[in-house]
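Lab notebook, bench 4. We co-purified these components, and the gel suggests they stay together. Before we commit to crystallization screens, I want a quick structural picture of the whole thing.
Request: model the full complex, all chains together.
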Amino acid sequence: MNMLLQKDREFMLPARATFIAASLLVALLFNGLPWSGVWLTLRPDMVALVLLYWCTHKPHRVGIGIAWGIGILADVADASLFGQHALAYTLLAFGGIVLHRRVQMFNLQQQTLQVFLLLLASYAAYAAVHWQVQGRFAWGFMLASATSALMWVPLTLLLQSLRRPRGNSERL
Amino acid sequence: MDHTGSVKFFNRGPSPIVRLVFFSLLSLLLLFIDSRHQYLESTRSILSTLIYPLQKLTALPPILWDEADDFFTTHNRLLHDNEELRAQHAADAAQALQLQGLQAENVQLRTLLDMRERLKVPMQLAEVLYAERDPSRQKLLLNLGQAKVADGQAVLDSSGVVGQVTRVLPMLSEVTLITDKDHEVPVQVLRNGLRVILFGSGNPNELELRYAPVTADIQEGDMLVTSGIDGTYPPGLPVAKISHIERDPAYPFARVQCAPATGVNNQRWLFVLSSLDKLPPRPESGAEASSLKGKRSAKAPK
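Here is the predicted assembly.
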């Protein structure tokens, strides 16, 4: 019971709008770093992860609409077709919101698997669009969903620690 | 008062499913428009201006890294580099001497032949901001925007052709590399002037020379330079070197692989050539021309 309460508290931590916006911007920045070669294929998609984090932790603050908007920005930054990232992130946000209760029940390691499946689904949508337009299925995108899922634990820990109010951690 | 529906205590707008369907359809619509038409380029320009500061910021870590690297360069390496550069310089100086002689000779020959001198095309320096995500498409984004570059301008580095500008945004421009799958360059074999077309393969270290007959006079190690007949690339720029030839008499064409003359994607600074003069329009083909003439002559008697 105590365990459960503590976990719930983790999910109930307050989040300011500026913090949410800043985390998404930093994620866009991370994706825009000059990756190349194998690293480009393996690059964890931070924007997807941060979106998923907010969709599962604050489903009423960050929803499908915001995910779509961020997707459009990602499309411009990546010079991909308009709507390609937007579609993938829309699906991802939907999955995150529908499953947010379920994700909250698990601990971090178990969450990784759930997150991996969600990412895989959204990347499949991305790759399907790519396949329709370019005529070739890019399996490389699937690898990226695995590396992204591996980043879930560190990212969650980081964002949680940033959200925790400073100074009164003993009282909690 | 009768309540037919269930009471809603919290109004949170449409349900997730409705939103999912709405935004997915919106995305698909955008995808359709963007892949078939050009209507969205201005929207893209506006949004790209919005995220330009972000992109500028992302180019910072590599610059800092380079600077730190410069700072910690060892004495030994400097000495080594110095020696190498000296040797290179000596070799270059000898070649430069020859070059002057050849240039003078060339000028004489050209004036003799009454040919117009080749234009010196002005060029500008551009910095590579980042490469595109999609590994199957070979594209780069440069930091020069609308004001300085135009669609179709050629992009070079110090040792040869890198690609051409294919999309211009307010602050950035997109370059398609010669190794991109959808990119072709008309080239000439330097040794004998044979004209061929070089296709990108989607692999950064490989180009393909297609439609060269099995009996064509090409050898491994031949240098390929631009022929300039496309009006995009000025003539005489090195593009690639033939690395492997497979002649199988069962096929009409030889399989020829080439390696790009430049490390196509390991440069941070590139040159963008200003546009070349427009080529004269293509003459009408024989059949069309005659049918047009026919029409005109038929109308004339009226």
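Residues 15 and 163 of chain A are 6 Å apart (CA to CA). Worth comparing against the SEC data before the next meeting. Chain A has ten helices and no strands.
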